[in-house]
Amino acid sequence: MADTVLLMGLPNVGKSVIFNRLTGLNVHVANYVGTTVQLSSGRLRLDSRDFALVDVPGTYSLNASCEAEEVAVDILRCGTSRARSKTTGRGDGRGHDEASSDRPAAILFVVDATNLESSLYLLFQVLQYNIPVVVSLNRSDLSREKGYQIDAGRLSRELGVPVVPTVAVTGEGMGDLKTVLLQQAAASSGSSIQADSPVTWDRVEEVCLRVCTRVPHHSESRRARWGMMLTRPWPGLPLCGAIIGLVLLVVVGVGMGLRQFVLLPVFRTFLFPPLENLVNQTIPAGLLQNILIGEYGFLIKGIEWPFALVLPYIISFYIAMSVLEDSGYMPRLAVLLDGLFNRVGLKGSGIIPLMLGYGCAIPAILATRALQSKKERLIVTTMVCVAVPCISQTGAFIALLSARSIVVMLAVFLLGAVAMIAVAIVLNRFMPGNPPATLMEIPDLLIPQPDVLLKKVWVRIRLFVTDGALPMIIGVAIAASLYETGLMSALGELARPLVVSWLGLPTDAAVPLVLGILRRELAVLPLMEMDLTTLQLFVGAAVALFYVPCIAVIATLAREFNIRLAVMILIVTTVGAFLVGGIILRIGQLLM
Amino acid sequence: MAQVNDALIPAAAPAEFTGNCARIGQVSGEVSLDTLCAGQRARVQQMPQDSLLHCLGLRQGRSLRMIARQRFGGPVVVELDGRCVALGRSIARTISVTGTM
Ligand SMILES: Nc1nc2c(ncn2[C@@H]2O[C@H](COP(=O)(O)OP(=O)(O)O)[C@@H](O)[C@H]2O)c(=O)[nH]1
Fold first, then answer.
1. Which residues of A touch B16 (CB under 8 A)?
2. Residue-level pLDDT at A25
3. Mean pLDDT of B10-25
4. Tell me, what's the pLDDT at B17?
5. At what angle do helices A391-401 and A534-546 cross, to 10 degrees?
6. Which residue in chain B is spatially nearest to A349 when comparing CA positions?
7. In the CATH scheme, what architecture does the domain A3-214 have?
8. Residue A106 forms beta bridges with which residues?
9. What local confidence, expressed as pLDDT, does residue A194 receive?
10. FRET pair for B19, CA 20 to 30 Å: which of A240, A309, A508, B93?
11. Within A437-533, where are the H helices?
């Protein structure tokens, strides 16, 4: 097994960017045993030696005051073996275990040059473990901009470890970092200077004074002024409304544009005609041909739906989300809305998984791990599962409704938002406990780097193709087979009392309800092929909105929480969807 | 819930969601952090010995500037040594500061 190099530092210092620069594509993510903390590990090649670079969760100290800190301490003491073998229990990891073969070969410690003091406090604690350390003095561009001058040579002498100034986002200093890291990994012990004396803030402040000078009367940058404006209620709150509006506009506008003017024309002129020709020539008319290119034509819809209908929104959504994430706007949003969120038992930071949920519920559920209390996790997860449509389903809603009735489309999204708030209020009533008070650092506002951004979006697209498009194509294949073999009408007859009598939809509408279990948008898309009235469209869309989240989400719930929650969500969403659908139909009939 | 927190605001600051802050200008004597107005500068006098607070730069003797008091009973945001930290009102209330210019 390759030696490990630990990547450590405060939260938000640029560890992920450095990790991505130093490792290749082969990244392995594992849960640390018994915790919700995830460790990424990637191959780091230095000269001809291979190391495993492990991204240790960012923490402020090693005082073991939260799960992430406990994990960091455990890894420093006993290595990363628990991240791999899930069978080993934890608990015996308390004593020093110098002989362990798993001891990290070196630590790459990332110091935030704009936040030297806190970085050094953590670094001093890390140095006590007597493992060779290389310091990357990162974000040095930002600290210069703020008017700080840090003497890297002096810092290195004070610490007794090599210090390499870096700018992770441009790659500056990465080459030096690798060279020094290789030298240090060959050494057997850490810094002799700082290892023994106790870590106090006084000591940290002293070192800071010696290595860092501040240019007096340095003027605030425009970025910093914007950062402040977006943090204050005025004009931050109105700007927050404007930004969210703009994001919606970009996601829907770019998505619709890509579909209408790029992907659909390309598919319809260059791909489908030759495909249809090919099938016509090679496969005799009949059942099989109909399954391939008939009404539900698996080759046509199976390609058009995932790639011309959903993909554009995946692209536009993740571009917008990545800009929000990488600019440092999300923490500001969380702070601005914290007071409101408090009233439903949440903290402002709950907005992050909620917004992710509009992309896909799975990353949203995983992101709830960052929330502090179990109650917050449960509330946000339920909100996402019950009432937040994923981006694929949103794309499907837009395709189904935008041409027929903008009012119904807006009503569906409004209904979702209202239901989301209702879920939070109800759960907050029935679950005891208040969220712990907010305490968080608000990072600087940054201009996102286009290459980092594109890489993120690219990863999402790849994930959609492998994990999203495939189940969707299978779903369409099932639909095509059911339809062409006549099984669909049999199914429709079976579901008649529910679908026809209660929801007022045609018998064919039983199909999306079956397929919807597979993927959320499949609960919507088949409705496009039916000739529905506006009221039927609204009923169908509302049922699809509240209907079971897809099967992958249910599996994630069972894994992240327990089977009980997964089953409860399944029941609540199914019953809720039919209830709401039936009520809408009856109210609509009364009004018309 | 926010309402519970607001009920605990000392009598000097009426229990409105935005809360009231000390008068503009010099803060006299020791006050709790949550009573500062945006823009006021102060020095930390007494505070809980909390590791995370210390790591975020809140330590005795540190000077800070109030940046914002969030609406709806939300947190206050202070600037310390070039970084911004958001503190829930219930935490800000446990930190006492004296005004500086
Ligand atoms: N200007 C500048 N930005 C950086 C640098 N390193 C990281 N960033 C940005 O800082 C933010 C946090 O980085 P990230 O890698 O996500 O932090 P992590 O929490 O430590 O993994 C991102 O928006 C990065 O683009 C740097 O050296 N210079």
1. none
2. 67
3. 46
4. 39
5. 180
6. B86
7. 3-Layer(aba) Sandwich (3.40)
8. A5
9. 56
10. A240
11. 450-463, 470-485, 487-494, 496, 510-515
- Pocket test of ligand 1: the residue of A6, A17, A456 to mutate, having most ligand atoms within 8 Å of its CB, is A17
Judged by DSSP in three states, A172 sits in strand
Q: What is the pLDDT of residue A109?
A: 97
Residue nearest to atom 14 of ligand 1 (CA): A14
Residue B88 domain-assigned (yes or no): yes
Whose alpha carbon is nearest atom 28 of ligand 1? A139
With the C-alpha atoms ordered A218, A223, A228, A234, is the resulting torsion angle positive or negative? Answer: positive
The mean of the pLDDT values for chain A is: 89
**Chain A interface includes B60 (CB < 8 A):** no
Q: What is the dihedral of CA B72, B75, B81, B83, to 10 degrees?
A: -80
Selected residue with higher pLDDT from A54 and B2: A54
- A214 φ, ψ (degrees, to nearest 5): -115, 130
Whether residue A338 lies within 8 A of chain B, CB to CB, comes out as yes
Which pLDDT value is given to residue A219?
A: 76
Domain total of chain B:
1
A478: Cα within 13 Å, side-chain hemisphere: 18
What the block records as the tokens of A267 is: 């598919």
Within chain A, which residues score under 50 in pLDDT?
A: 84-100
Query: Strand order of the sheet with strand B83-87?
Result: A439-442, B83-87, B76-80, B63-69, B41-46, B96-100, B30-32
The amino acid at A353: P
Beta bridge partners of A137: A111, A165
- A114, A232, A339 ranked by CB distance to B2: nearest: A339
Q: Which residue would you say has higher pLDDT here, B12 or A484?
A: A484
> Per-residue confidence at B11, pLDDT binned at 50, 70, 90?
very low
Is B89 close to A60, i.e. CB distance below 8 A? no
Cα dihedral A176/A179/A185/A188 (nearest 10)? -90
Q: Of A589, A408, A400, which is closest to residue A503 (Cα–Cα)?
A: A589
Annotated domain spans of chain A: 3-214, 233-433+457-591
Best mutation site among A37, A135, A446, A459 for ligand 1, i.e. most ligand atoms within 8 A of its Cβ? Answer: A446
Q: Which of A63, A118, A228 sits opposite B67 (nearest CB)?
A: A228
Q: What is the rounded distance in angstroms from the CA atom of residue B51 to the CA atom of residue A362?
A: 33
pLDDT band at B46 (very low <50, low <70, confident <90, very high): very high
Among the partner-chain residues B4, B38, B77, the one whose CB lies closest to the CB of A442 is: B77
Ligand 1, atom nearest to A17 Cα:
15
> Can you point out the beta strands (E) in A113-253?
133-138, 148-150, 163-165, 212-214
Q: How many helices (H) and strands (E) does chain A have?
A: 29, 10
Chain A CB contacts of B1 under 8 Å are: 342-343, 345, 428, 434
Q: Is residue B6 part of a domain?
A: no
Question: Angle at the Cα of A559 (from A555 to A563), degrees rounded to 5?
Answer: 75
Q: Is the pLDDT of residue B57 over 90?
A: yes
Q: What is the pLDDT of residue A141?
A: 92
Q: Does B93 touch chain A (CB under 8 A)?
A: no
In this prediction, residue B26 has a pLDDT band, given cuts at 50, 70 and 90, of low
- Cα(A578)–Cα(A544) distance, integer angstroms: 9
CATH of the domain at B71: 2.30.30.90
